[in-house]
Structures are given as structure tokens and as C-alpha cells.
Amino acid sequence: MTTPFLHINGLRKVYGNVVATDHVELAISKGEFMTFLGPSGSGKSTTLYILAGFQDPTAGDILLQGRSLLSTPSHKRNIGMVFQRYTLFPHLSVGENVAFPLRVRRAGKDEIDRKVKKALKLVRLDGFEDRMPANMSGGQQQRVALARALVYDPPVLLMDEPLSALDKKLREEIQFEIRRIHQETGVTILYVTHDQEEALRLSDRIAIFNKGKIEQVGTGPELYANPATHFVADFIGDSAFLGGELAAIADDRATLRFADGEVLAGVPLHGTGTAGDKAELMLRPERIELAAGPGREGATLPVVVEDVTFLGNNSTVTARTGWGDALTVRLNFGHPMIGSVARGDRLHVQWQPKDAHVFVKP
Amino acid sequence: MLLDFRKLGAWKWALSAICGLMTLFLLLPILFIVALSFGSSRWLIFPPPGWTLRWYEELFADPRWIDAALTSAKIAVIVMVLSVVLGLLVSLALVRGRFRGRAVLRAFFLTPMVLPVIIVAVALYAAFLRLGLSGTLVGFVIAHLVVALPFSIITISGALETFDPAIEDAAILCGASPWEARLRVTMPCISHGLFSAAIFSFLISWDEVVLAIFMASPSLQTLPVKVWTTLRQDLTPVIAAASTLLIALTVLLMVIAALIRKGKAR
Ligand SMILES: Nc1ncnc2c1ncn2[C@@H]1O[C@H](COP(=O)(O)OP(=O)(O)O)[C@@H](O)[C@H]1O
Ligand SMILES: [Mg+2]
């Protein structure tokens, strides 16, 4: 077995009686862009801070190329970090900010000049050396922070929601820059966000955090197509959940009975359960078809339309099942039903059983 | 705004007048003293019958006044340095520390501000007599430090509270040791607080008279004490000259402190 480049090994951190992270286990390869995605308070920052050395774990270890980092103080770990808040040194110019890590390493003047120039060029801020941080926009400040974190070629770069204070358009612009910088430098990045779009756009792999634990690790498409838990299914993509009861199980396929007696067979099952357990059926909006009457193949359910929203390239139809669960259907621009669907219509939804997922309720 | 000055009508004039009178009330004694120090009358007649620099010449010719001024300056400078250094350390603990009883400790550090000075003076006098510190430079410094430190702690804590510790964390991850980060990043960022603390500590010691009277000995006294003792023996315009110099330095430092605050607000 080869040792992973960066190994987060059974990390656990307890504050008083709050368990911030528990059994966090992750192997990251060199050059990988790994994102921690999860709601606020799920332990993403705590994991990052332990890596940075600002917190000591209650249990577990961090291994970089097989060697534990825990006994090394923060300032000797040689790790780069960009923070959520703006952390440029306000009394130093942009050039001096980027030079700071090199100055504390007692680098020579020529080396400092050359590397500062290169780092600012990397974040497309060449020529801003003499600017003071107070005279820059938030996006520019975070790019300088990125240059400062990369100027000493750290093996690992940590980023804790660095774009959360910026507006949407700027955020997307800088996400693009971050991707380019990752490709150009090949640095290993651990990125924290609570924004699924950002995670999907940037990452090689995503670790989904929930209540201090990692629920699932995988590429974006893997997580979307094959969510391991109800939480992951809910967090990635907009999904509908229809409540029901397990009727039978065979070969990882479930038969589900809905509240109105409707029965659906052959749905992929996640988790273990027995007949009679409460379960939920997950449907992706783009996998659902809307039709006037019941279809001949696949699964079908009668619904009542509650709302129709036009969103430019698609329209979203919100509907409710006979027993009251809501689901949304996406109609792409040009779909024949756009324009004719209205609130209160009685229609049918249909889908292929293999495109749905059943999660047993704990 | 609830009370817009421009919309007050006739009240506007009344308010302006009250403001003017208050300013005069506060400034008059100072103007009076300054005028007397340049007045030619030995009997402190006001308005002065003529103008002279004679009292300043007498002041600078008398080694006892010079001694007192030098003592005052020496004590004030030592108090200033110690007050800023200790104030910084205490503030770091109070603002950054996460220990129990922090609020109590903070209140405790600020008590000398609300305690009547005379009580502090009597208590210190009694203690210093036993310790053999009364009439010594060390005694003076400790006494003035007791009243200056709370001001230092308030201003430096205030500056430290508005400084985001994540900036210091960033410096540490950049490779600076914790103390290097504090020295190269935190200190420059809170320098306005440090300067204010320095100026106020200096002034508190420079102007202080109650504690100084208790601490003074015939061979060691500060300028305010010298003014006070001279006043009791003999009413001479030299006192006005000495007072004017005291005030001049105070005003100068206050102006510098105000400029620092304004520079920070910009
Ligand atoms: N210094 C701390 N003291 C006490 N509790 C903390 C501290 N830092 C984080 N926590 C708690 O740990 C949990 C995880 O926090 P955090 O790692 O910041 O989550 P995230 O970054 O995913 O939003 C939260 O419940 C939070 O309240
Ligand atoms: Mg966080």
C-alpha cells in the first residue's frame, strides 16, 4: 500500500460538550483539489484549523507524506492559507504583504523581488505592488492573499470560504481564476465552502460534511448520480423526496408503497432496511416527465400543479402528490407544455424506477 | 436626526451662547495664568500693568525649579514606558485570553480610575513607609503607574479589540513565530492605541499632584509639588511661569494625541 500524500486520520475534535469533528478520515493525493462541502457548523473549518495547527485534535493524526504534522507548530508547517475574512496586513503595501513570508524566511532581495513579481502575475495583479490593501476591492484583496499564500511554494494550500464575502458575479470570476491557478501550479488544495455550485465547479473530489462527520467522498458526478445518504442526496442538487414504506427488498432493489397505496418496484436502495420500514424516494427534477395522463412504461403518479416559475432557459413546475409531498419538475425551454401548464392542473409525473433512489429512514 | 441643529430656530443662539460661556469658563483660568506669567507686576495684578520675561528668567536661574522639572520628566518617561509595556501585556491577556474570571480581572485593573486618588495616596503612603519606598523615584513611579495603567489598558484593549486576530494567524502561517507576528504585524496595526496610551500615561504622571505630595521628600519633588509648596510660602509670578510651562507641554501632547486619533479615523 502506498502512503497517501496527505492523510487525515480519524480526526476528532471536542469543544466542551460540542463534538466539532468526529472520525474524519480522508486520503488526498498530490495535486488534488479537494473540497469540504457542508452546512455551517458541520466541522469543515475545524478540520482545516487542525491542519493549520491553530487547534489540536482531541484524537487522530494528520500525516503529510507519511510524517505526522501535529508536533510541528503552525509557523513551521510551511502550509499556505487563505481565510474567509480579509487578512492582508493593513499597514503594508501589496508588494510587502506578498514579500512577508519570504522576509520571515530571510530570503535574499533578488529572490524576494523575483518571487513577488511572479506570484502577483499569477493572480493577475502585476503592477499593484505599491497599492495599500485599504484601497482595493474585496476580490482583489483575496487575490493578493492567494499570492501571499503561494509565494513560498507550500505543499498544501488551505482555503476557508475565501469567496463568501463577495457577490455572485465576482465569485464566479475568481472561481475561474482559482481553477486556472490550481492547474498552473499543481498545488494540493483543501477548499472549504457551503456552496454546492462552487464545490462542483472547482473540485476534483468533494467530501460532504454533516454534523462533524464525512458522509461521502467522491467526484461531483459520482455524488450527484449515486448519493450514499439522504443527506448527500438532499445537499447536492435539488431533489424531491416522497415518503412511503418499504414493501419488499430483493438484490439492492426495493419495492415502495406510497401513502395512497400506489406501489413502485425496482428502485435502487441505499442503506439497509426490512419490509415495513419508513423510507423515502428521491427524484431529480430533470429525470421527471410531466404528462396529461398516466404513462404506459415506468412509474407514474397523479399530481396537482401548485406553481409555475419561468427561469429563462427552463421553467420549474412545483406540484404536490395526493398525500401532500411536494416535487419539482424542470421543463427545458421549448418544452410543449410550457405556456399551457397552470396552477391547479391535474397532471401525471412519470420516471424510470432506476433513476430514483430509496433511502431508509433511520 | 432627532435634534437637527439647523432646525432649532431661536434655540440655536441660546445653545451657541451656552457653549461659548462653557468654553470661556474652562479656558479663563488658563488664560489668566498665562497672562500673569508674562505680567510685570510682582503682586499678580490683573490686568497686568506691563509685560516682561523676568519670571521665566528667574525660573530658569533657580536650580530647584530645574531639578523639579527634570524629576517630573524622568518619572513621567519611566511611567510612560512601563505603562505601555504592561498595558500591552495585560490587554493581550484580557482581549485574547480565554480563561475564567476575565471580566472580573478587567474590572479589577480599572478600579484605580474610580477610586478617589486621596485613598490610593494614603494607602500607598502607608505601604511605602514600611517598604522604605517613600521619597524615592521607585515610589513615585509605582504610585503614578497605579493611576496611569488603567488608561493604558483601556486604550490598548480598545485598539486590540478592533484588530482581527485572523490577521495575526495569517502572519503565523506565513512562517512568522507567534512573537514575531505580534511584533511585525499586531503592534504596527495597534500603534495608534500604543501612542495614545503613551501620551496619556506621560500626562497623567506629569500633571499628577495628590500622589506626588505624599511621595515627595524635600530632596525629591515633581514640578506640580514644587508649585504647590512654593505657593504656600510665597505668592510669586514665577509660579505662573512654571504653571504655564506645565500647561504648554500638556497642550502640545494633547494636540499630538488628537492628531493620532484623527489619522486613525481617516
Ligand atoms: N473555538 C470553538 N469553541 C467552541 N466551539 C467551537 C469552536 N469552534 C467551532 N466550534 C463548534 O464546532 C462546530 C463546528 O464548527 P466549524 O468547524 O466552524 O463549522 P463549519 O466551518 O463547517 O461551519 C460548531 O458547532 C461550532 O459551534
Ligand atoms: Mg467555517
From TrEMBL, chain A:
Protein's UniProt keywords contain Iron: no
Superkingdom per UniProt: Bacteria
GO MF terms held by the record: ATP binding
SMART domains, per the entry: AAA
Domain ABC transporter: start-end pairs: 6-236
Protein keywords: ATP-binding, Nucleotide-binding, Transport
InterPro entries documented for this protein: AAA+_ATPase (IPR003593), ABC_SmlMolc_Importer (IPR050093), ABC_transporter-like_ATP-bd (IPR003439), ABC_transporter-like_CS (IPR017871), Mo/tungstate-bd_C_term_dom (IPR008995), P-loop_NTPase (IPR027417), Transp-assoc_OB_typ2 (IPR013611)
Transport is among the record's keywords: yes
Pfam families: ABC_tran (PF00005), TOBE_2 (PF08402)
SUPFAM superfamilies named in the record: MOP-like (SSF50331), P-loop containing nucleoside triphosphate hydrolases (SSF52540)
Similarity comment text for this entry: Belongs to the ABC transporter superfamily.
The protein's name in its UniProt record: Spermidine/putrescine transport system ATP-binding protein
Protein species of origin: Pseudochelatococcus lubricantis
TrEMBL record, chain B:
TM helices/strands, residue ranges: 12-38, 75-95, 107-131, 137-160, 194-215, 235-260
Pfam families with a match to the protein in the record: BPD_transp_1
Keyword Transmembrane attributed: yes
Predominant localisation class: membrane
Subcellular location: Cell inner membrane; Cell membrane
UniProt entry keywords in alphabetical sequence: Cell inner membrane, Cell membrane, Membrane, Transmembrane, Transmembrane helix, Transport
Keyword Transmembrane helix applies: yes
Domain ABC transmembrane type-1: 69-257
Name of the protein in question: Spermidine/putrescine transport system permease protein
